[in-house]
Each structure stands twice: as C-alpha cells, then as structure tokens.
Specification:
This protein has about 500 residues and is of the alpha/beta class. It is about 40% helix and about 25% strand. It folds into three domains: about 5-40 and about 55-70 and about 95-150 and about 260-335, FAD/NAD(P)-binding domain (3-Layer(bba) Sandwich); about 160-250, D-Amino Acid Oxidase, Chain A, domain 2, CATH 3.30.9.20; about 345-510, no CATH class. A hairpin with a 2-residue loop joins strand 19 and strand 20 (about 410). The termini are far apart.
Length: about 500
C-alpha cells in the first residue's frame, strides 16, 4: 500500500511518535504534524514510563527510546502514612518532564523527515487531500467531537476530583501519601522527574473539596490560569512531604477524570489515537504510554495491510482488547483510590498489599516474591502473627486461606466459610450483578436488610468475581457485618488478595 500524504493532528507524544514511525515505514510519504500550540510550551509536569512500556518502545524504535531514557530519571516507589513509610525498590521506573519528552520526540521526528507545523489549528475538513489523517488531538479531541456519529464516544466522569501540580525539588522517590485536614483527606501521588522537579498529583472526594471551598475557587479561576487558593492550601497541608518547597501550578485546576470509550476508532481515512480514542485512570499508567503503544500498533498494522481500511481495522482489532483490559483495571484502581481514606486504619505494609492487589493485576504471591520486605510485614499484620511466620511466596495463597477469623462471637478455623453459614439464621444472600461503583450498587447496599452475615453470590466470570469482591468491601465498611463472597475455585489467588486486603472476611469456593 502506498501512502503519499499523512497528516497528524496533535503534536503530543503520541502524535509525534506516530509520525516518526509512519515516516520510517513510508519514506516517500509527506508526513506532517499540525500542532496548534508552540513547540516549547506545554502544560503538565512529569510523565512516567514503566518497564513494559520501555520494552515495547525499544522493540519499535530503539534510537528514540535511548533519547528518552537519557533525559529521564529513575526512581523507586513508596507509601507514607503519617510517620510510617514502606519502600519498593524498582529501578525500572522512569519519569521525564513532559516538555523534555516533547523536545526529544520533536528531534527524532524531524530526523526521520517529518514536517512539524506549530501554531496552526486544523480540522479534518482542512486536510481532504491527505491519504491518512491520524487524530492524536487529546482528551478533548475536536476530531472525535466533529465525527461523533461515526466514532460513537462514551464519556464517563469519575466521582473524585484531582489536580496536577509540581514542586521545585526532586523527591527522593515516588510516594503515595495522604494528609487529613479539618476539611477531609487529600492524597498525593508524587514522583521526581528531573534534578529540580517533581510531579504532585493531589486528589480528594467531592465533600472534602466543597468543605475546603474549592468549588468556589475552581469556579473563580479563569481558564488558562491556576487555582492559587487551592495551591496555597495544599502547600501548607503537604508541608512535610514538600520539605518547605513550593507547589507550582501550570493551568492547575480541579477536575474529574474522564474515562473515554469509542464504539469505533476509525472512519474513512481518519483514525483516533491515544486519549482521543480512549483514556485510562492515571493511577495505572499515563495516557502517554497508551498513545505511544497505539502508534506502534497503527504503524505495524498499516504496513502489513493491503489497503488502508484493512490496516485501520487491523489496528483497532489489535489494540482494543489490550486497551479495554487496561480500562477495566483502571476503573478498579480509580475506585480504590476514591475510597483510600477509608483504609487508613490499616498498617502501611498491609495497605501496600491492598494497593498492589487492588485491580486483580498483581497477585499476593507475585508481590510477596518481588517485595518480601513489604509483603511479609503486611501479611503478618493481616494474620496477627510474627513476620517470621509468613511462608514462602509459593505457599502464601493457601496460608492466607488457612488463617482463622474471630469476629465478635463467631469463630472460624479458616477463611473458607462453612457451608452451614449460608443458611444460618441471620445470613442474607445477596446476588451481585451490578458494577461496584454504580448507582445501582449504591441502591443495592442502601436497601440491604439488617443482617449478621451477607453472603454474596453471582456469575463465575473473573471480572464479575472481582466486582463481587469490590462490592463486598463496600458492604463490609457500610454495615460492619461479616461478608462472605463466593469465588470460583480457579481464582484462589484473587480470593487471597481480597482477604489480605480486608475487602471481605470469608470466601466460599464454587465449581
């Protein structure tokens, strides 16, 4: 297939990376990136790149990844609650300033022969002579909006609010840390990305946001400016973590995360890429990662296809399953962070176990194998035994299931619920067929009759099982009753993670 003209709308990381890859694959094509902003201006702070993303980028284009790595900063991860802190050694985590990343990618795009045109606002109608139009124009994509009937977008706002800001020093490591003020709890996700800069993303619930008066300051902050009222408040609240340094704004305002899904990612010769097509919550990775991995799949699919429609169809078929899987994980992660303040009574090591297993992506065994110095104290806190009693990672799942439970007058020899409990007076069966964080789930929980035990049943599909465990946590915290969740026997690791994280009290294996 011969492409003579390729137009890329949007000069963010995904658009620049796609342009370079497409130009390398189609050297005779005229490839142009149209970016309405200037080359040296951007908003945002640091961008994180996990090890798997780095491997994908290296396989696609080692040279540009080398340029990115050379300008990046490695860091470890930690969680700090009050004076208690746990650390995870993780030398493969990298962060880079967004402006620096754009500069690197602009250099490599030009090197490949891509034309970069800044300060120009274009739409699909302006580019009717292009063979291919790649719309990498971000979360507020004008292309997606203009062709909404073809793309079929669905946009869902999260419950919590967050803002991006930065600070003028490098944190020693990435840190998740909460601060409770007179108005409620705020949680920072922070990490260093340069010798003198760190990202600070701070989130909270709507009630805390309103009590602090940030609904007013958000409304009164003009577009394009930063909410200085919030920055001053949060700088004082996080004074310990900041070590006396300032919070820096860059068009910093409170917002809700928007999860975007589209029925289709392409129509005619126009294809969506990155945030224009889909988003996944920042707690499991950056939009930059998704956009650059989209670019790889788009380039490979077009190169292998006989015609453009075949190539764009193959691109979507290749990327959609991975993106939808990540979005499902991200949805769980977002909900976990929304309810984070409710877990602050857990020891920080156990809280880290809950964090690592929150979305069903990492098992307790895997975490215990990779970070025993954190997992073992967390599991010992769950079981109420010395750390030395925690077994090897391979035995951790069954060990968790074998732990006894004392709950008021109830005594259980292990965490597998006895069959008789299901039909005991005081036990209410609850068929869970709703998403854990939906209005339907809230109505279900509010309408539950008073009971000593709630026994949750439902489908044996894994995603539905994970939903059931998350609903279990909501019921457990709302009622104070014993919560039992049915789990297919093939998902014993998921059951163990839920127990160790105190999402449910007991499990009942099915199948």
């Amino acid at each position: 297939m011969k492409l003579n003209t390729i137009a890329v709308l949007g000069g963010g990381p995904g658009g620049l990376y796609a342009a370079r890859l497409l130009k390398r694959s189609h050297p005779d094509a005229d490839v142009t990136v149209y970016e309405q902003g200037k080359p040296d201006t951007t908003f945002g702070f640091g961008v994180g790149l996990a090890s798997r993303t780095q491997r994908n980028l290296r396989a696609a284009d080692a040279a540009s990844l080398d340029g990115i790595v050379a300008a990046s900063r490695a860091h470890e991860m930690s969680m700090r609650v009050g004076d208690a802190e746990v650390r995870l050694a993780h030398g493969e985590l990298l962060a880079i300033g967004r402006a620096t990343l754009l500069s690197v990618l602009q250099t490599y795009a030009r090197e490949a022969g891509v034309n970069l045109r800044f300060g120009e606002r274009h739409c699909v109608a302006d580019l009717d002579g292009a063979d291919l139009i790649v719309a990498a124009d971000g979360i507020s994509s004008a292309t997606r909006t203009a062709l909404a009937d073809d793309f079929g977008p669905e946009i869902i706002e999260g419950d919590g609010l967050y803002l991006w800001c930065g600070t003028d020093f490098a944190l020693p490591r990435a840190v998740f840390t909460p601060v409770t003020t007179e108005h409620g709890t705020f949680v920072a996700h922070a990490y260093p990305y340069a010798d003198d800069r760190s990202t600070f993303l701070i989130e909270t619930d709507e009630q805390t946001w309103r009590r602090a008066g940030f609904d007013v300051s958000t409304k009164e902050t003009p577009n394009g400016e930063s909410d200085q009222v919030s920055l001053d408040y949060l700088q004082e609240a996080f004074a310990d973590a900041l070590g006396g340094h300032h919070l820096i704004g860059n068009r910093t305002k409170w917002t809700r995360f928007r999860t975007i899904r589209c029925r289709s990612w392409h129509t005619g010769n126009v294809v969506l890429l990155g945030d224009a097509a889909h988003t996944a919550h920042y707690s499991i990775g950056s939009g930059t990662k998704l956009a650059m991995e989209d670019a790889i799949a788009l380039d490979e699919s077009i190169l292998a296809a006989g015609d453009l429609d075949e190539g764009l169809t193959a691109y979507e078929a290749k990327r959609r399953p991975a993106v939808e899987h990540l979005q499902a994980i991200a949805e769980r992660s977002m909900a976990w962070w929304d309810a984070f303040p409710e877990r602050l009574s857990l020891p920080v090591e156990q809280l880290m176990v809950a964090y690592m297993t929150r979305a069903g992506k990492v098992t307790v065994e895997r975490f215990a194998e990779s970070a025993p110095q954190v997992a073992n104290p967390g599991l010992s806190a769950f079981a109420g035994v010395p750390t030395a009693d925690v077994p090897s990672p391979a035995a951790v799942t069954e060990w968790i299931l074998d732990q006894p439970l004392v709950f008021g007058e109830h005594r259980f020899a292990c965490r597998t619920a006895p069959d008789a409990l299901r039909t005991t007076a005081g036990t209410t069966l609850v068929d869970v067929s709703v998403r854990p964080w939906s209005d339907e789930a809230t109505a279900l929980i509010n309408d539950l009759p008073s009971a000593a035990v709630y026994w949750l049943t439902g489908s044996d599909e894994r995603e539905v099982t994970l939903d059931r465990l998350d609903v279990g946590e909501r019921i457990r915290r709302a009622s104070g009753a014993i919560v039992v969740a049915e789990v297919p026997s093939g998902f014993r690791a998921d059951a163990a993670g839920a127990l160790a994280s105190e999402r449910v009290d007991l499990v009942a294996f099915t199948g």
